[in-house]
Amino acid sequence: MSMWGGRFEQGSAAEFRDFNDSLKFDYVLAPYDIQASQAWVNALAGEGLLSSEEQQHLLHGLDELAKDVALNPKLPLQSNAEDIHSWVEAELQERIGRVARKLHTGRSRNDLVATDLRLWAIAKAKLIGEQILAAINTLIEFAERYENAVMPGYTHLQRAQPVLIAHWALAYVEMLERDFDRLSQASDRAMIAPLGCGALAGSGIAIDRSAIAKELDLREPARNSLDAVSDRDFVLELLSVASIGMVHLSRLSEDIVFYTSGEAGFFLLGDQISSGSSLMPQKKNPDVFELIRGKTGRVAGHLQAMLMTVKGLPLAYNKDMQEDKEGFFDALEQWQRCLAIAAYAIPYLSVDLAKAEAAAMLGYSNATDLADYMVSKGIPFRDAHDLSGQLVLRAISQQCALEALPLATMQAVCQAIDEDVYPALALTAGMNRRSALGGTAPVRVQGAIRRARLRYQAHAAALTHIRQARLTDVPAIADLIRYWAGKGEHLPRQEQDIMQAIHTFAVAEIDGNVVGCGALYVYGTGLAEVRSLGLREGLQGKGLGAEIVQFLLDQARNLGIARVIALTRSPAFFAKLGFEIADKSRWPEKVMKDCEFCPRKHACDETGLEIRL
Q1: pLDDT digit string (tens) for 538-571?
Q2: Is 302 marked active-site?
Q3: Helix (H/G/I), strand (E/B), else coil: 532
């Protein structure tokens, strides 16, 4: 079925249809085309262009069609429709009759495809976000497993200084976290509703586009019809994010390929993630990581192709834009698959602890420690650097390690060197010396692992049920606080107070209903408190409360807050989240603000806890 046949006296040539039609790849948009069509039906009914009976008939038909597509996503491919939009209309008409011909009233395929593609991108970004977090989690677990293991760090692929293996893993956690943030931001910017913009100039019907955006769970309607139907910057942005993410995975893969090689041998590949050679029986190949590395060019290539597609296009829609889909679909699919296989494979990596530590001691990697030692004796660093280099030359000529040089040999180069140089050159001493923030000292890495775990939990919470509260949530939040205040767990709060402080609240949401809340109150001194934490009765023990707290802690971290407190009758709950018992008298801010007015002031049975971020 064609959506534009009235203007033409003859049908399209088969060759043209084969070249022009897009159903063979845009069929994946079917669920989103149906979703957009349902919102459009309600909008038409709202303007009186559909009777209530017609509205229900169309919605029922679309709902049944959605169920069938869910059972068989390739169902549209059984037809010869031009694209997914014409397939939905033709299929709907076959099922419910001529009333389906009213569905396209006031809309165009231009605003419809722009809407469908945004909905698909947002849904796909959520799935990819889950895979990024899975990969982050496996890297954190790897860091925890090898928290104290040492290997050589490299610059220019030459041994440079020893690092903790956990420190190496956490470097990629940082990269993947930024990928997650970029993906979240790009997804948020994609949450614009083009539907109702027509072909380019707007719909001829005074449709309520804000209601459409709300029904589609998008942030707002597009503000300009020309922009809405013709720009694909959200595609470019997500392709860019995917390319950067794949580069990070590629670098991770390259490290693993090298570390598992015979030349390094620090890491060992599990049989589950290895392949062999058809000729050489001794081989054990890191194919998983090589494939990830290889697919990076494929994803980055899709970004370049899309940039070239849109760079010279005039407003508004042009058929060139049909090329926005195949590469986009493939790029995000490949990124998702690579993240998933990386998360699966990393737990099958192990470390040869002895070999890695022995390698960390080679290559005179403690030469900088020797220079630092001389600096501690009052020698300027530039001089110490030169003297340390001279001693490296002597060690090379004697074919021994720096720490194996006799004291007399060292003193011949620098008289300030004494017997205490040998403990300073030990591997552990050098590691402990790197104790500045971000360094590889064990005490720093231990704290970094803990903070990475907390950030991971906060990201996971934000991706599932937890979000920033909105003004429309005030009644639900008030009901929750009122319920728990009645049980003596909270101080009562008026709706007006909650509304004024809505920016401090986070809510837990299930099936569109607010089922939990919590707030981060910041005192004038910069201390913050988790308060007004509560869930709907019966939902305790399912992790929602922990997710709310993790979300609030992440907000505190982003605000630069160093300490967060909680006053509770459930200290074990907060202790599991990293809070520690604290002396309430050390919180004058809390005492003056709330405790002085609490009816239980002289018989307080709550425990004070705090966490340092």
Answers
A1: 888 888 899 999 999 989 998 999 999 999 888 9
A2: no
A3: strand
Residue 440 and residue 168: Cα distance in Å, rounded?
Answer: 9
What are 315's two structure tokens?
């407003």
What is residue 71's predicted lDDT score, i.e. its pLDDT? 96
- Vertex 148: Cα angle to 146 and 151 (nearest 5): 80
Residue type, 445: V
> Which residue among the candidates 51, 210, 277, 376 is catalytic per the annotation?
277
Task: At 507, list the tokens.
Answer: 């809510």
Fill in the DSSP letter of residue 33. Answer: H
Burial class (CB in 10 A: 0-12, 13-18, 19+), 479: middle
Q: What is the pTM of this model?
A: 0.85
277 is annotated as an active-site residue: yes
For 205, what's the count of Cα atoms within 13 Å in the CB-facing half-sphere?
A: 21
pLDDT single digits (tens) 466-478: 899 999 999 999 9
Burial zone of 490 (CB within 10 Å; 0-12 exposed, 13-18 middle, 19+ buried): middle
Considering only CA atoms, which of 581, 528, 579 is closest in space to residue 557? 528
Cis-peptide into 316, omega within 30 deg = yes
> How far, CA to CA in Å, does 300 sit from each of 62, 174, 311, 331?
37, 21, 17, 8
- Cα(290)–Cα(287) distance, integer angstroms: 5
Give residues with Cβ within 8 angstroms of 281, minimum separation 6: none
Indicate the SS3 state at residue 211: helix
